[in-house]
Amino acid sequence: MSRFRVQGKGRVRHDAPVGFTFDGRAYDGLRGDTVASALLANGVHLMGRSFKYHRPRGPVCAGTEEPNALVGTSRDGGAKGGRFEPNTRATAQELRQGLTVESQNRLPSLKFDVGAVNDRLYMLFSAGFYYKTFMWPRSFWDRVYEPVIRAAAGLGKAPDTVDPDRYASRYLHTDVLVVGAGPAGLTAALAAARSGAEVTLVDEHAEMGGALLSDPGVGIDGMPAWDWIAAQLDELDRLGVRRMTRTTAIGYYHQNMVGLCERLTDHLDTLPDDAPRERMWRVRAGHVVLAQGALEKPLVFDGNDRPGVMLAGAAQTYLNRYGVRVGDLAVVVTSHDSAWHAAFDLADAGTRIAAIVDTRASVRADLTEAAARRGIRVLASHTVTATWGRLRVKSVRVAPVRDGKVQGGYRIDCDCLLMCGGWTPSLHLFSHTKGTLRWDDVQQAFLPDRSVEACQIAGAGRGLWGYEAALRDGIAAGNAAAEALGRDAQDSAVLVANDRTGSGVSHKELPTDGDPNRARAFVDFQNDVTAKDIRLAVREGMRSIEHVKRYTTNGMATDQGKMSNVNGLMIASDAVGKAPPQVGLTTFRPPYTPTTFGTFAGYHRGGQFEVTRKTPIDAWAEAHGAAFEPVSLWRRAWYFPQAGEDMHAAVARECLATRRSVGIFDASTLGKIEVSGPDAVEFMNRMYTNPWTKLGIGRCRYGVLLGEDGYIRDDGVIGRLRDDLFHVTTTTGGAARVLAMMEDYLQTEWPDLDVWLTSTTEQWATVALNGPDARKVLAPLVEGQDMSAEALPHMSVAECTVAGIPARLFRLSFTGELGFEINVPARHGLRLWEALMQAGADYDICPYGTETMHVLRAEKGFIIVGQDTDGTVAPDDANLGWAIGKAKTDFVGMRSLRRPDLVAKGRKQLVGLLTEDGAVRLEEGAQIVADPDQPKPMKMLGHVTSSYSSATLGRSIAMALIEGGRDMDGQIVHVPMPDGVHKARITSTNFYDPEGERLKV
Amino acid sequence: MTHFSAMSLLKNALNGHKGWREQWPDAAPKKEYDVVIVGAGGHGLGAAYYLAKEHGITNVAVIDKGWLGGGNTGRNTTIIRSNYLYDESAKMYDHALDLWEGLSQDLNYNVMFSRRGVMMLAHNVHDVQSFQRHVHSNRLNGVDNRWLTPEEAKRFCPPLNISRDARYPVMGAALQMRAGTARHDAVAWGYARAAAARGVDIIQNCPVIAIRRDASGAVEGVDTAKGFIRAKKVAVSAAGHTSVVMQSAGVRLPLESYPLQALVSEPVKPCFPCVVMSNAVHAYMSQSDKGELVIGSGTDQYVSYSQRGGLPLIEHTLAAICEVFPIFNRMRMLRKWGGIVDVTPDRSAIVGKTPVKNLYVNCGWGTGGFKATPGAAHTLAWTVAKDEPHPINAPFTLERFTTGRLIDEAAAAAVAH
Amino acid sequence: MLLIHCPYCDETLPELEFAYAGEAHIDRPADPASLSDEEWRDYLFIRSNVKGTHAERWRHIHGCARFFNALRDTVSDEFITTYPAGQARPDLTIKEAAE
Amino acid sequence: MTLHDRDLHGATVTIEEIPPVARFSLRVRDKDRAAAGAALGVDLPDRVGDRAASGDRTLVCLGPDEWLVTAPEQARDGIVRDMAAIRDGAPHSLTDISDREITFRVAGPAALTLMTIGCPRDLRRLEPGRAVRTVFDTAQIVLWRDGPDSFRLDVWRSFAPHVRSLLEIGRKEIAAGF
Asked: Where is the signal peptide (chain D) (predicted)?
């Protein structure tokens, strides 16, 4: 075991080694390690390269805010196993047996990266440099500059294999949600739970305790911190608090909805069956307590980014939680008391502290005394001006500051440099709610101000420092939450020994005696934004912090600005010459930490992506080799190819068979609405363009529905079953829309009408039989209805039984042939279909799909709403003027038909189109012109809406919307295509049996 | 104005970048302007630039309630294309595209317009019909747009899943090669810098309280947080806030403002070469030069100015992305944000004159405003300067809602059957 | 995702059960034929698009299926009140005075 | 991992499709409710979500003027007859929707947890004995709570396979201890 591991220290299991590889080399860590702590235990600091300059970097944090130590990880044989992912934070990824880790953004290797040439040219790559150049020659941007920039940018590689893991989601309702299980979160959860509230406590780490896990020397209520944590967790469990670890609150949405991402398997050596990798929890809480603590700020000085330079608090965590010393010889540089404790802990664990450099002139006596006791050199009122070391820091230059002037400096050797620039409250989730922040001049930090949601902020998150203060604040917040929910809360006390209280000051860049224009003082480590970049942005007129952010990319890295935002603001406000709140704080955006797409997608992948609605007859179609097409949420049988047939051949055969004898078609997806009640006919009169009063019982009629704007929305055949009962059919895709539209008018405009609407789309399975032999097939199966043409004429409806099943039997035709639509209760749909297939066997009955249906109706000139109309087509445009009740004074959309543009000449009208060469089938969507030789842009008259090869007619047919088309009957128009111009003659849309003789049987 | 070039960059690099000056001054309002433009987004700043450059009107102020480019200009997914269905739209967006192609040089500011191609996926027969109608119409309008088979689409964009078993199989795609993306902030900054160089005042953090009209009913200026500013003409280009501003002049518009969300992933090496849009599945994606996958989501169903937006939409959007590009399942969302889009009943913009004399409006771009920026700005400047419609913005009038002559791009994609 | 109080169910429920249905209190004219093109346009298309308290319609489509009205602040998205369809817009000044 | 007293390591939940029943949508105005109740032999409950039953007929109030009437299959014709008899005096709509929906029963100690994978409602507030229309994932359902650990879901027929397979995925997660 490495000499950096401190035996017996930390919460890792020293008896449980875990093997993993980094860039192909095998290492050992311990159960409980993160990738970063395990590598640090092996003396490895260099873990990544930065975004722009490809500078060598090591971890700067010990948590999810890490900007530098991003790695690619995979399991089960690397990338091809589908579980590779880029940009994983080594500081947060728990170690597991066999974990494969690789470094990123380097070529060929982490230690030698050719991309680092950018670092030599850093003066060129100042903030916003790309806005100022790469403009000449013009064509070079696409072909040269941009590809080069793109290849250099980005961090890890994207996965290139489909992810085999599954993702899950749940809703959760809870009285109180506590986010963060540090000292304040624990006491808040307990206080709320003691009041009897249902409480949920979540924490992003593998275990609860927060900062206390890094501070075992603190005593609470007479117990060592870690024993106290265990006792709290016991009581929380006894009280039934739902505790969730490895669970990040990623976003705070309206009305106390908080999204949580729970990571279920990434820490496991092997993947259990049926276990989702991650789960999205959509939590709705009565009250929320945010106890997310504070984030330690780096100090900004030249060379503050070398491997080995890290936050003092991180070093303390590596030591106390993971039992890892981050180096043998440390220099600590700080502007806050907290780093002193880190220094003492490290010193006590065997790391030599070469010096504690404090930027402040005076430091608390107890701290300096404690340093003296340990023989640590203290340099107050000092600054750091430079560091050295290519792949690891090896020395640091410090200098005294007198009256704001930097005096002569000197170098101190070290193998790690621990910095602390103070702490900033973690207010990301609070900001998601649009809660307001206020600037606190004393703390030099933004603190929560006005909350717009029912939430409390507790502990360090609102600027409190020291464990006792946080613990007490947690109790108060938990009690406040309980009281807000109407529960009795009890105050309780808490006593802390060895509390680590403290305070500090904030800085812009640390003062230096070097050339500030040469300083590489990093603010955003990952994006390589330096202090002088920010000053340059301000000099160029970027005065709002949002401009500065966007111009420099400060705060836009994968740490979401957790490391860089406040430092960036301090520097920008200094440069602008205004107080920080006047320069502003950039908005924190969800998610709190980057979250996989898979977690958001949840169950909605593959077959579960979206509902696929299938009819009761779908299984038969599938068994008989149907090809399917998606139509809204449904899948419909498209055509039924036989061996060797393509779509064209199958459709030709289906069409001919239907016209010759009989075809059978599954029309179950048609929308169906029962309109019932004494005012049903009045309602129908108001909704549809047609007149309904005189429609006899047992008869049906083709109805047209407009939007209030006068354009066609839907159509369908509507049957009258009783005086007060209509069976309305709609298009497949329009079913839900039409019902919603009808309900809207009924409930809100005409609530006085005694009529009710019920969707029966799925109550009925609908089978259409068409063809000259349709009656012969059907009649033997019908009971209770005379099937003669006199008793059941075209456009009529009857209730009877078919194949022993109660049915609504329509006689109607969407093909021009003798046609019936048989509606039976859905569970019997397949039985009806099979009975008809059997009865039709003697007539060579032919199942057909939607494509044949489309051809057959086009041969008759029947429109498909949405194909031959497009939302700008009025009834008259589609030759449906006859469907408007002449005596009607109002119906939905009627007034709009009188608007100037709807009565203007030259509207597009639906006409038939026959190509000069009948073998040429026009493309649907092809545009029509009068003069094919005109220059572009051409004057287009309209477009082809429907076009098919008609096997029946032995040639192609088409319908088109053409300006003034009805007045152009017989004229030739042109359809210019890439391969030549087609000529076509304008005709009627009724191509087949125009007199309707075939219906008269 | 310091000319931007590789030379000037090098020169400044050698002196520590001390030579750069502010790209636009932070102006204090004057008492009076020839034209006041409300809204310092790409459209408003662009209109000011073209007023100055092409019409010689330089006594112009652009006023914004916040910082310039802080509205939808800085919040969109930067898609630029012109393969629209109706002639009116195609002409407007193609005019914009023509200007996009020379914009960096025109402004001396690299807006990183990148012609990487925009591909729109067809997932059902209706999509195929509709997109082919686009392709044919565009071809005769001289607008670049071509049809691809699924295999061709996959070759153009390798992460695409073209499995026939997919819930929404790819049945083909319409590709506009000339289309692409640009760097959104740079558009606002580039216009601001170029306009300021021609004398335009850019006044930030100055909310407009009301448009003031004189006794004759004509516009006389704007009341702002920094006092009254007299103006001979006022043009409102305030995106989601247009209704509110115009209401103060007594003009009610057919507009509603909805929250629209967008998001980016963590940055990765180049893996996605173009822009892909899938209307049926509701997924739009490209990869920024920084390496982030840039993804557009949908609008929430209710009117809102909150810029928040709900979680279910994001969940649906990312499920859609993973459906079309299953290899990106383990990519992580880095950041999501919201904007406010102003939507008209026919989903097409309103650009031009209003019933109030000397008051002009440019609004209703919905989710398509960014791609129109130079075209809308350029034609708006014309209309303001000449007090008459530009041939390209003439169809985008307010009157069309009275006559019924809508430019209904949304309805043209209507699905019923 | 919003939480919405349905006045018919008397429960506060997730937005997923509801459908937004546009601005409230725009009644369909009793006699559309008598309207000018401009008046008809106003009915069809002109909306107040309020930044602030917005009267709007919702339908509890996956619940009791009723349309109802709401007052909602479009800046914070917070619901101020909901009330049955057909009822007049509540006068908030009276409500505030009573509190 | 989640730690909770109701957490369900290996806890069971069963999902079964139950046989069809006669099912009607009944719509009637307030003034005619009493007549409808008298005809059916069950008073119409007036609070959305409430259930009432008499003999083999069960009524659920789904909306202020909407009730779901269920009964064994053989009672179908009787219900139609009883209501037809009052149509003139008490106008209403009675629509047979027996085949519109498929019903699943979800029962067992983990039933409530399983429902949370798709139902956004706070199910703590849906007391046993009540039934409401709501959503499960993207499907509209009528959700019956028959007991603390027992639910029924009426799902539109074509949405049922989607709901069923989602429930199965969730059941396996729970069985696996996740």
From this structure: none
Looking at CA atoms only, how far is residue B24 from chain C in angstroms?
A: 31
Tell me, letter by letter, the H, E, C secondary structure of chain B.
Answer: CCCCCHHHHHHHHHCCCCCCCCCCCCCCCCCEEEEEEECCCHHHHHHHHHHHHHHCCCCEEEECCCCCCCCHHHCCCCEECCCCCCHHHHHHHHHHHHHHHHHHHHHCCCCCCECCCEEEEECCHHHHHHHHHHHHHHHHHCCCCEEECHHHHHHHCCCCCCCCCCCCCCCEEEEECCCEECCHHHHHHHHHHHHHHCCCEEECCCCEEEEEECCCCCEEEEEECCEEEEEEEEEECCHHHHHHHHHCCCCCCCCEEEEEEEEEECCECCCCCCEEEECCCCEEEEECCCCCEEEEEEECCCCCCCCCCCHHHHHHHHHHHHHHCHHHCCCEEEEEEEEEEEECCCCCCEEEECCCCCEEEEECCCCCHHHHHHHHHHHHHHHHHHCCCCCCCCCCCCCHHHHCCCCCHHHHCCCCC
Asked if B261 and B251 sit in the same domain, the reply is no
Boundaries of domain holding B293: 115-180+256-343
Domain containing A633 equals 620-670+762-860
CB-nearest to C1 from B244, B252, B310 is B310
| Residue among A282, A749, A895 whose CB faces C35 most closely | A895
Say if the Cβ atoms of D121 and C14 lie within 8 Å: yes
Residues of chain D neighbouring A614 (CB-CB closer than 8 A): 158, 161
B141 and B44 together in one domain? no
B326 CA: distance to closest CA in chain A (Å): 6
Partners of B254 on chain C (C-beta within 8 Å) are 41, 45-47
- Asked if the structure places residue A51 within a domain, the reply is yes
CATH code at A240? 3.50.50.60
Q: Is residue B319 part of a domain?
A: yes
**ipTM of the prediction:** 0.96
State the nearest Cα–Cα gap between B281 and chain C, in angstroms: 19
pTM given for the model: 0.96
Q: For A539, name the nearest residue in chain B, comparing CA atoms only.
A: B22
Number of separate domains in chain D: 2
Quote the number of domains for chain B: 2
pLDDT in tens, chain B (417 residues): 789 988 888 888 888 888 899 999 999 999 999 999 999 999 999 999 999 999 999 999 999 999 999 999 999 999 999 998 888 999 999 999 999 999 999 999 999 999 999 999 999 988 998 899 999 999 999 999 999 999 999 999 999 999 988 888 999 999 999 999 999 999 999 999 999 999 999 999 999 999 999 999 999 999 999 999 999 999 999 999 999 999 999 999 999 999 999 999 999 999 999 999 998 888 899 999 999 999 998 888 999 998 888 899 999 999 999 999 999 999 999 999 999 999 999 999 999 999 999 999 999 999 889 999 999 999 999 999 999 999 999 999 999 999 999 998 776 554 433
pLDDT of D73-98, one tens digit each? 999 999 999 999 999 999 999 999 99
Residues B280 and B377 in one domain: no
